[in-house]
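Narrative summary of target 7.
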Amino acid sequence: MVDNGTESGPHSVTRSRTWMKWALGLSLGLNLLVVGLVAGAAYRFDGPHGGPGANRHDFGAPYIIALPEDRRRAIFKELRAGRQDKSTSRAARRALYAEAVAAIRAEPFDLARVTGVLDTQRDATLGVQQAAQSAWLAEIASMDAPARAAYADRLQEVLARGPKRDGEKEKK
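Modeled conformation, tokenized:
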């Protein structure tokens, strides 16, 4: 039999499948990392903080944007002060991304480890969202009927035109 440097038979199919599983797993991990980075950047720059990309509508942003600036600031201050779970701190978020990168680079690739990191990030995000929702609801519940009506008008305006741009004056 002549060996021409190519493999054939059952061993080549097994190696091909193993290689393909690793490639797909690594691809999935990298895709999830990119999604996490994009979502983090979107929250950081487009979130309720009113960064450079604040002209986009996020699911909850119009509710917050429609509040008077002093009330927005008070809600965010309350959220930061009341945060007992430090899993959403900047340092904790960086540590989770570092863990994700390490898990993606690990040999052998451990899908469960990456999934665990992503689950932790999701849970932290949901915790922040729930706390913000509770603070917003408390703010709305504290308003009398005329204040709620004025807020609803402002919310409708924000939804119709998007958030206030730099230099644009508040309509009265």
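Confidence is low (pLDDT under 50) at residues 52-56.
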